[in-house]
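A student in our group prepared the protein record below, which I am reviewing. I have pasted the whole thing underneath without changing anything:
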Amino acid sequence: MSELEPSELLPSERMQTQVLEGEVTQIHRGHQYADVGDTFTIDETTFEVTDVTERTLGDLTDEDAQAEGMDDLEAYRGLLERAHDNFEWDDDSEVVLHRFKTQ
């Protein structure tokens, strides 16, 4: 188990604030950035990574998008397309789910 810098897992201050406020409880990334049991601290609140699972973009649901602070999967897809140059949604693209909770 390791203590991570929040920015290692959560790429923006906006997302870190959403985690702190309970609006975001997971993030999918292109690679694995943490292991189960790792922790990170935001403004004196410590979070523990509770699940790390390999998935594909096609596995994602509206529930996943909502857990990442979006209204639905379509909004999540739009965010990814705006955030990443040359991004094309491919249901077969591999991603890694990182789920966390307040410790």
User: Anything to note?
Assistant: The two ends are 14 Å apart (CA to CA). The mean pLDDT is 96.
